[in-house]
Structures are given as C-alpha cells and as structure tokens.
Write a structure and sequence with these properties.
single chain; alpha/beta; 16-stranded parallel beta sheet; 6-stranded mixed beta sheet; 31 strands
C-alpha cells in the first residue's frame, strides 16, 4: 500500500526533525527538509486518488513502485540513525541527553529517491487521469437504472417479516401527511435491495400509490439520468426518449407528479448531497407520497429534518439464517435430519448475512448435497468453503472500502490484525494507530465513520445518540476481505500456523500479525522471523499464552511491539536495544529496568501483570529514569506508581496515565505532567490500614484533564469503613467524565461534583456512594448526559428543581432498594425528546413501574436475570 509506506516515511523524517533529543551535524537538517518536501509532494499526489477513484492496473502498478521506493529510503535512514545511536550510547545505561546526527552516508539515497519520486509522481498522476474504459466508467458511476426488470413479482425474501411490516406500515400510514422520506441503511449484502423490491411489488403498496418508480442510484450518480429514469416509469403518456436539459427535467418531473400520490425507491444511495439535490425536483404535497432510500450508510437523509426516518436493516437471526440456507439447498424437499446439526452451524457461521448464506448454499449444492462428511467439514471450517465464499462476495464488499479516503483505508485494514470475531476496544486500536504514526486528520474518529457506514459491527448498545463507539468487531466477510487486501498490498503478513511461516512468505515483510504465540517456540519459525531485518510491527493478537515463549527481539528497526498476550517472567533485556520503538506492550510481573530510558522514541508504554497473580499491597514504583521518556503520550502500568521526578523533569506529552496507584497523585508528580487528559487509578487497600487516601487533592493543577476513573478493588461496604474515603475535592472545571468504584463516599459529598460545568458522563459503581438517601441539588449537573448507578444501598433519590436538565440516559443496575425514579422535568424540550432512555437491570420492579408511568414504556428498557 503506497499511501501507508509514504505516510510511514513522512512520520520517520518529521519525528527526526522535531525531536528535541537530536542535534544535527553539518547540513543534515537541510537534507531532511529536502526529503520531507519530496515526500509531502508524493503524499499529496496519492491523495488525488480520493477524488478520482481510478483503480486501473496502471495506477496499482505505479503505487507498488512508490511503496517500494519509500520503504527503501526509510530503511536507509533508520538503519543509519540506529547505528549512530548505539555507537553514542554504548557506554551509557540511560539514553544520552542528545544524539548528534549526520546523514552524509544517506545523502545519496535521499538524492536518488528525490529523482525517482519526481518520475514516479508524474507517472502516477498520468495514470490516475487516464480516461476509464466504457465498462470501467459504468462500474464507477453506477448509472441509474429502471427497476421494472429487477425481479418483478417473483422477488423473494426470507426472514425479517417484522421489519418488513414495520416499514410497510410506515409507508402507507397517515395518508394525508406531507411527503415522507425513509432511509434503510445496512451492511453490503444484508438484503436492502431485496427488501426494497419486495415492498415495491407488495399488493398493498401498489394499491396505496397512484404511481411508482424504482431507480438504482450508485456511487457516482448523475441527477439527470435519475430524473429520466423516474419520469420513464411514472409518465404513462410519453413514449419517446427524454432529452430535456437538467433544469427542464426538474420542472417536468414536478409537473407530472403534482397532485399524484407517488412512491419512489432510490436504491443504493451513497451520500447526503444526493437527496438534497433530488427532493427539490419532487412535489411536496399533503397526499402521503413516500420516498424510500437504501444505503450502506446508516443515515443518508439530513439529520433532524421533519418527515424523515432512518433505520438500520437487521441481520437475520439464527432461525431465519437456517430457514434461508435449507430453502436454497433443498427447496421444497424434506431436509435430512442427519444434516441438521451441521446445517445449523453453517448458517450460524454466516452471522446473518443473506448474501453470504446464498453463496455458501450454492457451494453446498455444487457438491453432493447429502454428503454428511462434507457438511461437517464446512461447519467446522476444515475446508475452504467459507473463505472462498467470502472471497466471492468481496467485490460487493470492496465498493465500500474502495471509496474510503486513503488514511481511512489504512485504518480499516489494520483492524484485520485481530483474530476473527475479536471484539476490538476503541482505546486499543487508537493506541496502535498512534504507535504506527497513522493517526492523521480525524483518524481518532475513523471508528465512528466505519460504524456509520456499516463496515463494523458495534458491540453493546449506544444508548446516547451521537455517542462514540467503544467496542466493535468485523463481520467474518469483512474480516476475510481485510486480510486479503492487507496481504495483497503488503501491509501485513498473517501467521496462524506453521505452514504460514515459510521463508518465502515472510521475506521482505514489514508488519506481522501473530495469531498463535506458540509459533515462536518452533526453532525454524523463530529463526525465519529473526532474519527479517526490515520488520517494523509485530502484533501478537492470538489467545493469551501463560507460558513464556522465546519471542524474537532482534528486529533493530522495530517500531511497534504488542506482546500483551505473551507472559514474560522477567523484563527482556533485548527490548531496550530496540531504540526505534514507539509502542511497547507486554505482560510482565518484574519491575522495569532503568535502561528503559534508552527507548527515546517511545510514545506508548503498556505493561500488564500475569492474570493469575494477585496484586500485592506493597508499593511498587517505576524507575526514576521513566522521566527521561520525553515522547511518552500513553503510560499504562498496572499496580505501579510514578516516582517523584528529578529536579525540573517533565513529561510534556503525556496525555493518559492509567492503572497506577494512589501515590501517583502527589503534587510533585501531577505538576510534572501538565497536559494530562485522562487519569485512571486502581487501588488495593491494605487490610489493616487506617490512613485516609489522598487522591484528588492536587488534580486542580491539571487544566487539560477530561476524564478521571478511580477503582478501589477491595472496598469496605455496608458498614462504617475502616479507611475513610479519599477526600473528594473536585475542582477540575475541564472534567467531562468521572467514574468511581468502591470509594464509599456519603451522598452529601455529591454536592462537590454536581457543579462541574462540563461533566457529561458520571459512572458510580460498587458503592461509590453509600447511604439510603440522595437529594440532588437544585440546578445540579447542568451538562450531564449519561448517568450510571450500579450496586448501591440507596433507597430514596430526589432531584431538585432544574437538576439534570440535559440527561439523555439513566442506567441503574443492581439497585434493589430504589422504588422511584425522579422526574427530570426542568427542561421540557429535552423531556419530550425521543432520545431520552432509562435502562434498568436487575432493579426493584417498582422502579420499572414508576419509570414507565413518568416517562412512557417506550423509553424504558428493562432486563431481569430472574425472568
């Protein structure tokens, strides 16, 4: 992938130029500036693809040359920097204060790249602007087509009957309303077009509308062609070809539809601009006319417009998937009972995607459909049927990928490094993107873009409208596609078995995703991987391995090492020789060595402890040399504390400090991390301790702090606590998120939180507050949108006038004594909003009754484990 290689080279050069640890010798700075300009120019040319979308063979060949040349120069520069660093630091345990850098030996490589880059850039732009063939043009444009020949009355859809009826009722209800638009979004292959066709040919729909039109729009729509297609279906008088200019088509379509109740289906729409352009050409009268749009996006109609609805098309459930599979394989024949178990598992493996079920069914039919052994092999994925089926539908899925911007493509393919069906947490993938240097533009919002385009499956419900996606996974069809694209573009090499690790396959690869950590223990595999001098990223994403394996640590140019799923008994000394590391994640119970400071480029440091080892209450500190890591942005060290800094030491770039102990909240420490945005504490109390903790006394010095999470893992509840709760001095006006667990504050102390002006999310777990009564202050919590209360002894909760004016979601879990939910009635506009939700999980049934009476049953979600 040319864009990934150029982006990586740009990141490397830019980091060298902006590092305060480097002093340049002679004309080195000018040399790097010259190289940076050429790389930026090349990157700008590659971005032209976002607008032209010319994916011909010539463009792809040109991109391959650019990728190889960019990687060659990056290897030369980083190899030279590494050699100089090791030479200058060989007599030091710590990183030298400054590195004297000269790139005279690389000047020739840079000059050669500059000349080659000019030629490659011109060739690329020339290929990009070449006119497409007629076939390519039709493919790219998605020319509007009529719907009369799209299956007619023979169209058939299995399952989703409730969703079909819901949409049909919405189409025919309230016949006197003004024009209404309905958008159905969903993943490619989920059956949106089939649903639209079934609705279009439904007898009840035909009877309710005077005229109908079905038009496929496509990615690159031409509005005149769409209007002509509509007119051709609704104008029963005109037989000749429609040739009017665009402005005449607008007026003509309005005229022939005026006074008529119309139903127009616009299939496969891609963007908001299309509907905005089209709706002005259609009359908007009080006669119940309807427009139905299908899209791969969740919303193609502008938000908050009146008389417009957006829905996401659901996947088939397991029973519906099974019905579709057996119908396509055996039709009206009786299904053999001996194939039932395997058949249901095959259907389940398709995860509700109708297109994938149909392709798998066709492959079952291509063999002996009564062969039980073959069905079992397919069910257990012991043959290539699923992978081949996903490959067959990849052209349909690839359209969504191909029309992404370059940086989004890079982010999306990166998700494929995780195993199939792996639930990816937002924080995890963003730190990896950051370590790779690919967080460009709004890269941190890439996940939300993927979710809105139905490219990922969101895990957990987003109860607050507009909330960020916190966890997601890929559908197996997209997972296979990601792997295939990542490997074909030489972005990643995936290793899950011994057969994957041949020398021919791993040679010249730069990024490895290891799905099976035991592979490192095989000598041939270990030696083969150790020989890859160009390796930049190694991600061990398979199941956690509790035994130490001899992982390769000889990659001198390695940038990202994520080995959190491998247990190290001792901190590996070889790691501190990997001086190009920007991201280091591992699981180790031993203390970090002072030589960790040699990793002068490290931005992300994550150290977990072995799962089976319980924390000790003895205080453990990081080495004081941790303050030498000036590039550090993310520090996640379970069960350890930051030591007090040496005189004048500061970590100016540290944004996240996670899972540290109470002693990391001292004044000297917090004042030396002035730009911290997120603080997460995990504290284990000593059984005989009577000393009050001091956690929040000094957080007021953190003017950029947005989020605090504090978990006391062994709290004392339901009695007078032995240890007084930590003082609650919340004077951080910038705070937006606060999560407390096990702290045991009295509810009266909530008065110190309720006045925080920007607090939007408050989570209280495991007796974070204790006592039977909570009286929320008047006008308290002015910006709170989400409130979680879980596991508490509260009995009575009252809300003062004007409190919680912007609350969108209240979640209560295991609150057995609360019988009444307050009425947050101060903001009438918000109260009437359909987006306010109350969620009750294993709470008192009387609380459910109260909530439904005060807010309406449609706003209350209830879940009881005992029902």
């Amino acid at each position: 992938m040319a864009y990934a290689a150029v982006n990586s080279l740009l990141y490397t050069i830019d980091h060298l130029l902006n590092s305060n640890r480097i002093s340049f010798v002679a004309s080195t700075s000018e040399t790097l500036d010259f190289a940076l300009d050429r790389v930026k120019s090349l990157q700008g040319s590659l971005r032209q693809f976002d607008d032209l979308r010319n994916n011909t063979g010539g463009v792809m060949a040109s991109e391959a040359r650019i990728r190889d040349e960019a990687r060659r120069l990056e290897d030369a520069i980083e190899s030279h920097v590494s050699a100089q660093f090791l030479s200058q630091s060989q007599n030091h345990d710590r990183c030298p204060p400054t590195l004297s850098l000269t790139l005279q030996d690389s000047r020739q490589a840079i000059d050669c790249f500059a000349k080659t880059a000019d030629k490659m850039e011109n060739e690329y732009i020339e290929e990009l602007h070449k006119p497409l063939t007629e076939e390519e043009e039709e493919d790219a444009a998605g020319v509007a087509s009529l719907g009369n020949d799209s299956g007619g009355n023979e169209c058939e859809m299995v399952g989703l009957s409730d969703f079909f009826l819901k949409i049909r009722n919405l189409l025919i209800a309230n016949a006197n309303l003004r024009r209404t638009a309905i958008c159905i979004g969903g993943m490619a292959g989920v059956g949106k077009t089939m649903l639209a066709l079934k609705l279009f040919h439904d007898p009840l729909i035909k009877a309710n509308f005077e005229c109908r039109a079905f038009v496929r729009v496509g990615r690159k729509y031409r509005l005149e062609e769409i209007l002509r297609a509509i007119i051709a279906q609704v104008d029963l008088v005109r037989d000749e070809m429609i040739t009017e200019a665009a402005e005449d088509l607008y007026e003509y379509s309005k005229r022939i539809l005026s006074g008529r109740k119309y139903y127009i289906v616009l299939d496969d729409t891609w963007d908001l601009g299309f509907y905005l352009d089209l709706k002005s050409a259609l009359p908007n009268e009080d006669n119940g006319s309807r427009i139905l749009l299908t899209s791969r996006k969740t919303r193609t109609i502008e938000p908050d417009v009146t008389n417009a609805y957006s829905f996401t098309m659901p996947f088939l459930d397991e029973e519906e998937s099974w019905d579709l599979l057996k119908k396509k394989v055996f039709g009206e024949e009786e299904f053999p009972r001996r194939l039932m178990k395997a058949g249901k598992k095959i259907a389940k493996n398709c995860e509700g995607l109708p297109l994938l079920i149909l392709v798998v069914a066709a492959r079952l039919l291509s063999e002996d459909k009564n062969d039980m052994e073959y069905w079992n092999e397919v069910a257990e994925k012991k043959n290539s049927v699923f992978e081949d089926s996903c490959d067959q539908i990849s052209e349909v899925l690839l359209l969504s990928y191909r029309y992404m911007r370059q940086y989004l493509k890079l982010c999306f393919l990166y998700i494929g490094v995780f195993p199939q069906n792996y639930v990816v947490r937002r924080s995890r993938i963003i730190t990896l993107w950051g370590g790779e240097g690919i967080l460009e533009h709004s890269g941190s919002h890439a996940i939300d873009k993927f979710a809105s385009h139905n490219l990922v499956l969101v895990c957990g419900r987003c109860l607050v409208r507009g909330a960020r996606v916190h966890a997601f996974r890929l559908h197996p069809a997209y997972w296979y596609m990601c792997r295939k694209e990542a490997e074909s573009s030489k972005l990643f090499c995936f290793l899950s078995s011994y057969a994957d690790c041949s020398v021919e396959r791993v040679t010249n690869q730069r990024c490895f995703a290891i799905y099976n950590n035991v592979l490192f223990a095989i000598k041939e595999v270990h030696d083969s991987l150790a020989s890859i001098s160009t390796a930049r990223s190694v991600l061990c994403t398979g199941p956690y391995h509790q035994y130490q394996v001899p992982i390769c640590l000889d990659w001198k140019l390695l940038r990202v090492l994520d080995a959190l799923t491998i247990r190290f008994y001792e901190f590996p000394d070889e790691v501190v020789k990997l001086i190009q590391l920007t991201y280091l994640g591992l699981t180790c119970d031993a203390n970090l060595p002072p030589s960790i400071s040699r990793l002068w480029k490290l931005s992300y440091l994550i150290v977990h402890r072995h799962l089976s080892i319980k924390w000790t209450v003895d205080e453990s500190y990081l080495p004081v040399e941790i303050w030498d890591l000036q590039e550090l942005k993310h520090l996640e060290i379970i069960g350890r504390n930051l030591p007090n800094p040496t005189h004048g030491a500061v970590l100016p770039n540290l944004r996240k400090l996670l899972d540290v102990g109470a002693h990391s909240c001292g004044k000297e420490v917090l004042e030396s991390i002035p730009n911290l945005r997120k603080l997460r504490l995990q504290i284990e109390l000593a059984p005989d301790s009577t000393q009050a903790l001091s956690l929040f006394d000094h957080v007021s010095c953190l003017e950029e702090l947005k989020s605090i999470q504090c978990v006391i893992v062994n709290p004392e509840v339901l009695c007078e606590p032995i240890v007084p709760p930590p003082a609650l001095a919340m004077s951080v006006e910038s705070l937006k998120k606060l999560s407390l667990s096990g702290s045991g504050y009295p509810w009266q102390d909530m008065s110190k939180i309720c006045e925080l002006p920007y607090l939007a999310v408050l989570k209280l777990r495991n007796y974070a507050f204790q006592g039977e009564k909570w009286e929320a202050k008047e006008r308290g919590f002015p910006n709170l949108k989400y409130l979680l209360i879980e596991d508490t002894d509260i009995v009575q909760w009252t809300a003062g006038d004007g409190s919680f004016p912007r609350l969108r979601c209240l979640t209560m879990k295991n609150c057995y004594n609360v019988e009444e939910i307050p009425l947050f009635a101060s903001d009438v506009e918000v109260l009437l909003s359909p987006h306010i939700i109350i969620e009750l999980v294993d709470c008192n049934p009387l609380a459910e009754t109260c909530a439904k009476q005060r807010y309406g049953a449609e706003r209350v979600n209830v879940n009881y484990s005992w029902k």
